[in-house]
Write a structure and sequence with these properties.
Layout (H helix, E strand, L loop, with lengths): L5 H15 L12 H20 L1 H5 L8 H26 L5 H9 L17 H18 L8 H29 L3 H20 L11 H6 L7 H19 L9 E3 L4 E3 L5 H11 L3 H14 L1 H18 L1
Antiparallel strand pairs: 1-2
Helix pairs in contact: 2-4, 4-7, 6-7, 6-8, 6-10
Bound molecules: fe (ii) ion (2 copies).
The site of one fe (ii) ion has 5 residues, from helix 4 and helix 7.
Amino acid sequence: MTAITEPEAELLAHFEHTIDRDQRLEPRDWLPEGYRRTMIRQIAQHAHSEIIGMQPEGNWITRAPSLRRKAILLAKVQDEAGHGLYLYSAAETLGADRADLTDRLINGRQKYSSIFNYPTLTFADVGVIGWLVDGAAICNQVPLCRSSYGPYARAMIRICKEESFHQRQGFELLMTMMRGTQGQRDMVQDATNRWWWPSLMMFGPPDAESPNTEQSMAWKVKRHTNDELRQRFVDMSVPQAEVLGVTLPDPKLSWNADREHYDFGAIDWDEFQNVLRGNGPCNTQRVAQRRKASEDGAWVREAAAAHARKKAQGDE
Ligand SMILES: [Fe+2]
Ligand SMILES: [Fe+2]
């Protein structure tokens, strides 16, 4: 065991004081190794989720039913690419290397949100992803705008604004389909049935089984527990489902007047763990596609690096 040296104790006190005062930690500040590692892991996982999340919806760009829907979907998928890039930049301020993070994703050493391992079977899935998946992302991310790490918190402000556009476009698309034919209404209901439970899983394991929550709350990296955020999402979604006219696939869903929250049924955590282990319907395909994109883009990165070297030499 190494003893904490005098200057380090002082730095640690400053770090804790910054968190106590609800101020942000910045790249120039001294950070304990555990905090740095946790932040890199969380930001990288978030960045990977944005980038992998482009795939399920990107699948529908060429088959969008109108020019308007295509333009909206294209803009949304591009936003997700942008979110990934802000977040990789935030991870770089902590000393992470972007190429190394991509390698870790492709080699299965870092995770992304397991929601993106489910397939998009019809165009209604595009609407339901906007409504539920981006909706859950907003619940998770709004409190992160006050996260203790400055670059992450600031990236989250812009990301949340764009996520709320994503959520609305999804809801508006579903409203349009619900006013259409019976066949369209059936598609919306079917997509809702498939995405509802995986959306609830997006908040992570129950608090009792979430090993990192306590430390992340103490560091103010996280502001609410998984179960609190999940409850908030359920409470928000039930009235929205009523407006849409779809049924959420949970017979146990009911208003609890004492708690002033909706009760809901048990989540199938075995399914969650199974998808997390790589056995979801699309895990292999998602990672293979990301690997191919990285390999196909290698010449662009090499050319850009060669150009930068040449310019640097010329400027000498
Ligand atoms: Fe996003
Ligand atoms: Fe989004």
